Amino acid sequence: MRFEYAPAPESRSVVTLRDSYGLFIGGQFVSGSSVFKTISPATEEVLAEVTQAGPEDVDRAVAAARHAYERTWSVMGGRERGKYLFRIARLIQERSRELAVLETLDNGKPIRESRDVDIPLAAAHFFYHAGWADKLSYAGFGPSPRPLGVAGQVIPWNFPLLMLAWKIAPALACGNTVVLKPAETTPLTALLFAEICQQAELPPGVVNIVTGDGATGHALVAHPGIDKVAFTGSTEVGKEIARICAVSGQRVTLELGGKAANIVFDDAPLDQAVEGIINGIFFNQGHVCCAGSRLLVQESVADELLTALKRRMERLRLGDPLDKNTDVGAVNSQAQLERIEAFAATGAEEGAERWSARCPLPDRGFWFPPTVFTGVSQAHRIAQEEIFGPVLSVLTFRTPDEAIVKANNTPYGLSAGVWSEKGSLILSMASRLRAGVVWANTFNRFDPASPFGGYKESGFGREGGRHGLEAYLDIHGTSVLGGSDV
Q: Is there a catalytic annotation at residue 289?
């Protein structure tokens, strides 16, 4: 007998949406020349109109950030900066339900994930970096590390508020000011964060938020007033940003795509591994740069594992993201849905066997069922290219050496997972995997004290932890601004 959960929808009444949002520049919301609509991917309803920032708006934002940097933020003591970050972290906690509902409305991810992962981690990053603000001279980058200046930051649509926290918290802790551009399809929590900055009485111009499409991001990255660029997104765009920064001489960190291998050995606890595989690929509809989108399973347990995996997938609940029982929400946009569908069609054409969980798809919105491909070879596109959706490619191996060869046979190098009862095997595999993060008997675990980043086409630089501070510090400069006090 199959038991069904009764609907448990989260109330939308905790969020008050404006009809139209301006740009956040110099501590105030200001108008722009044109607007665009942001919609709910689950229902396709229009949520609000958002301003499209042009080059002149980016100029204004950078000028406001520069003024705040030179007159206020870089000359403020680290202890005082830390108080502002701590205040922001507390406000995120206080408004966590509002932020979680808004994130789910605008992004399409399940409210359970917004509530239990995105918002708490965003607050944790501000708490963590608040503690570093007056201790930078003890971070291991010399006795008097200094801020760089104005940071231009561009974030993706898969974790809008969390990526904002990853970028803004270390930048502010180190004494820099920020101009941030959220993704075109998910700008609303960034704009609510602007209200939190006002509520925290953050000095005007320290944080500026400009909304728009790729043209806005290009104007920000290429702006001569930007000292540091931080980007999370696709590898293609990251390459273009790297070319721009190579010419301009700006400091840059890039966190790009991934094609992570989740490696399961025959001695692994299979029930635990199945839950890790589910979390690795279907968390946030697979819209995760470090998603475990390639399952490498040892041949001797492949059939048993796949049977258990499919049985677990049949129990995933796809539907209304605001329902607290939902496991898989909506794909973020029509364009992303078409990309996922195209990859799934290609996988079948190339000879892989497709299996999708039997689940009814809602009539409106953008939806794709959790899907597994077996019979996948290394040459298949679904084994080499980032799909960024709920699609898992399964390959098998016989020996640890074969697993290493297959896992590293990708242009990416962001993350990996290893499942085994043998600690020595896990450590051996981790030392040979060309990945920035390797999880052992778990997957998709994050902590603000732990650095995150990749190799090869997954980008360079680290975010989070002590290592992430270095990207926002001038450890060789001679400027007298921004000395760290204790």
A: yes
pLDDT at 481 over 50: no
Identified catalytic residue from 10, 103, 255, 386: 255
The alpha carbon dihedral of 448, 325, 257, 216 has a sign of negative
Beginning with the edge strand found earlier in the chain, give each strand of the sheet holding 353-356 in spatial order. Answer: 353-356, 371-374, 391-397, 294-298, 261-264, 415-419, 437-440
Q: What CA–CA distance (Å, rounded) separates 16 from 190?
A: 15
Residues 6+ apart with CB under 8 A from 217: 154, 181, 237
- pLDDT tens digit sequence for 75-116: 999 999 999 999 999 999 999 999 999 999 999 999 999 999
CA pair distance 466, 140, nearest whole angstrom: 9
Q: What does the buried/exposed string (b/e) look like for 173-189 if buried means 16 or more CB atoms within 10 Å of the residue's CB?
A: bbbbbbbbbbbbbbbbb
What six digits make up the tokens of 43?
Answer: 């229902």
| Residue 345, phi then psi, degrees to nearest 5 | -65, -40
Rounded to 10 deg, the angle between the 78-94 and 160-173 helix axes is 160
Residue 385 is among the residues annotated as catalytic for this protein: no
Catalytic residue, chosen from 174, 245, 289, 290, is 289
Residue 482 has pLDDT above 50, yes or no: no
